[in-house]
Structure formats: C-alpha cells, structure tokens
Design a protein that fits this description.
The chain has 399 residues and is of the alpha/beta class. Helices cover 40% and strands 14% of the residues. Strands 1-7-6-5-4-2-3 form a 7-stranded mixed sheet, with helices on both faces.
Length: 399
C-alpha cells in the first residue's frame, strides 16, 4: 500500500496525511490506550503531548549552554527533581536520552572509563555483574562494550541481593567494574535488594548502577519508598519519564552521582566545538554518547510545572492500587492463580490447566476483537499472563 506513494513529484501533504491515518496509523497499536497492558506502556498527559508539539515546532538545539541555556536550565531542574526523589546528593546530574537501553549503555561506558582511570596499569578485559532478571538491554549493552557477564543467582523472589552478589564476585575471574541492579524488574515488578547491593559495591569500590526505568516513578509514593532504600548510593540511575511519569516518547533520564566522571568519558574535542564548550557550566552533549540532541526533557519539565508533584504522585499511586485490586480479583476467581503479591504495578498469574498455546490464543483473540493488548510471559520458566499498569485511566472495570 505504501509502495507507490514515494514519487519524484510527491503526492501532496493532504494525500500523505491520509496515507498516515488510513494506512500507517491503522497498522499500529495505540500504546496509550487504557487496555494496552503489555510491555511497559505509555500514558503521556495531554498537556505534555501538546507541549511536545510546540517543542517540535521550535528550533531548539539542546546540546550546549551557548544556544540552549533556557532549555538546559529547565531540563536540569527536572533532573534535579528526579535526583531529589531518589535521595541522590546535590552534586548529582545528567542528561535526557531516548530510552533506557541507550541510558544503560552510557552508564556502563562511564563506569568502565572510571574504572580505567582508577586502575591505569590494568588494560585487561572487564566484567559487569547482574542477575538473569536484569533488563535484556543490560546484557546487550555488556556485549556491545565487550564486558564479560558475571551471573549472580537470584533469591527465592527473583531479586539481586547483596549476599548473592558477594558470592558471585568471589568467584569472578576478571575485574568487575560495575553491578547492574533493577528498581522494578520489568517482568514481575519487584525491586532488587538495593541497600545490600550498595553496601557490597561501596566496600569493593565497584560502580553501582540502578536501572529504575520502569519502577523509579514509585519513588514518589511514600508507602513504596522503602523498597528503594539504597538507591541514593547509586553511581548512576536510569528513570524513564516516558514510561510511568506521563511524558511523551522519547524521554529517559540518566543521573550520575558524580557527573564529572561522565563528562570526562563523553566530552568530544574538536576545534569547532571549543568555543561553545567554554560557555556556561553545563552542556548536555558532554554527559552521554551524543552531540546533536533534541531537548527531550522539556515536555517532562512542562508536565511537572503544569500539574505539580502531588498530581503526579496521585497518578502513580492509582496504578499501584489497581494492581492490588487486580490481585484480589484473581484470588476470588476459581482457576486463576496469583503468582506473587504485586510490589509495584505488575501482576502475574496463571490459569489452571492452560498450556503455552492457550495463553497465546487467548491474547490473540483479545487483540483481534480490539478489547485489549496483553501478552504471555514466563515466570520460573512456566507460561503465565502479565498485566502492567501505568495508565491512570485504566480502571478495575477494564481489568
């Protein structure tokens, strides 16, 4: 259907937009729908989406202070709000990237550079430690950076713990420069033993990275804050506002405990760059593997400014409460088996007697009927259903 539409003369804006609405958009799933419950969905506020349009129509080049002082100051204010939510020191700072995969890449690249700086005589291969429940991007990033992966056993709940980490590090055959912990495991929504991991990393001088891309929003909810004890000691933290903080795609916040380490790793040097690098005190282009960048943190800042932190906390809590209510509904229905009490906003359960094929057929039917998008998963290597709530418009009636 699209093949004949790219021509030498063009088909005109009206016809091109018709093609978008009738062909392209019609073949996409709306991930901000209240019954899109697969993966970690996306539920931007209307105000943030409208502002994102304004940003796209503005010629803002968000790389350096010279040409984007206002945008940089606003992004840094939003980053500071996240750092304060995590209890990170006043010196913490970072930048906004496209997603957690890229943010994890930059965090571990900064960790490697910091380790090399502290161990200049050792040029051998390095390792990074994580469990099988770490996000798939962490393993992919480790391969890209040529890290050996030190596998750490999970506890009986599937979490990384300080005790298991200590055991694994004791058997590592090469230096471990970083540990990846998770603040909200994507598959089941649990938070690793961050305090225990932080203690081990601090004792051994290992970079402590927390991937809280999904779960970091729960830091705003006082009754869930205890789950993240230890995150304030992290050397780097990833939180995605485009996941559970109601911001348009694409917006991932990467925070460093000591931003100077990242700046040393990522600042580019060229004659034509020197002039703007001498202006101001913060160039977002210096804190990750990027230079040209959209000021993608501005819609998040706008949403914070427009609605205030209380409204955001209420919206996050809505999904946590919905997960708890869903768990009670599952327990009340014969044949449905809750696999674990939800800690954040992910619910996993099984249906008695169902095979993997049954789960797939059920999900395919829901999608074909236009009712919902959910997907099967595996928990302890057994098929299950997974619901992930991040949209405050989703109700128990939807479930």
């Amino acid at each position: 259907m699209l093949a004949p539409l790219l021509t030498t003369a063009g088909i005109g804006t009206e016809a091109a937009f018709t093609a978008f609405t009738e062909i392209i958009a019609a073949a996409c799933q709306p991930i901000d729908h209240q019954r899109f419950l697969a993966f970690v969905a996306h539920a931007p506020s209307i105000s943030a989406s409208l502002f994102d349009m304004a940003l796209s129509a503005s010629a803002i080049f968000g790389t350096s202070w010279l040409e984007a002082a206002g945008a940089t100051a606003a992004e840094n204010q939003a980053l500071r709000w996240l750092a304060d939510s995590a209890g990170m020191p006043a010196t913490a700072g970072g930048t906004f990237l496209s997603g957690a995969t890229v943010a994890n890449l930059n965090a571990l690249a900064a960790a490697r550079m910091a380790w090399r700086h502290n161990h200049p005589a050792d040029s051998g291969r390095l390792a990074v430690a994580m469990t099988a429940e770490a996000h798939s991007s962490a393993r992919m990033v480790a391969r890209c950076l040529d890290f050996e992966i030190v596998d750490v056993l999970c506890d009986d709940r599937g979490r990384l713990t300080g005790a298991h980490l200590n055991e694994a590090l004791g058997t590592a055959t090469m230096p471990v420069c970083a540990v990846v912990a998770t603040g909200g495991i994507t598959n089941v929504g649990l938070v690793d033993d961050l305090a225990g991991v932080a203690e081990v990393c601090g004792t051994l001088g290992i970079w402590f990275h927390v991937d809280a891309a999904y779960g970091g929003a729960a830091l705003l909810v006082p009754e869930k804050r205890h789950l993240f004890a230890g995150i304030e000691q992290a050397d780097s933290v990833v939180i995605d506002p485009h996941k559970w903080l109601f911001t348009p795609l694409d917006c991932s916040a990467l925070l460093y405990r000591q931003p100077a380490l990242a700046k040393a790793a990522f600042t580019q040097h060229a004659d034509y760059l020197a002039a703007f690098q001498e202006v101001g005190d913060w160039n977002p282009g210096d804190f990750a593997m990027h230079l040209t960048r959209r000021a993608r943190g501005l819609p998040f800042w706008f949403m914070l400014a427009a609605h205030g932190s209380d409204a955001i906390t209420t919206a996050v809590r809505t999904s946590i409460d919905l997960a708890t209510a869903t768990a009670r509904e599952i327990e009340a229905r014969p044949g449905l088996n809750l696999l674990m009490e939800p800690e954040l906003s992910v619910v996993v359960f099984t249906v008695t007697g169902w095979t993997s094929s049954d789960y797939h057929q059920f999900c395919d039917r829901l999608l074909a009927e236009g009712k919902a998008l959910i997907l099967p998963t595996q928990v302890d290597r057994e098929p299950a259903l997974r619901l992930c709530f991040i949209n405050p418009r989703t109700t128990i009636e939807d479930v």
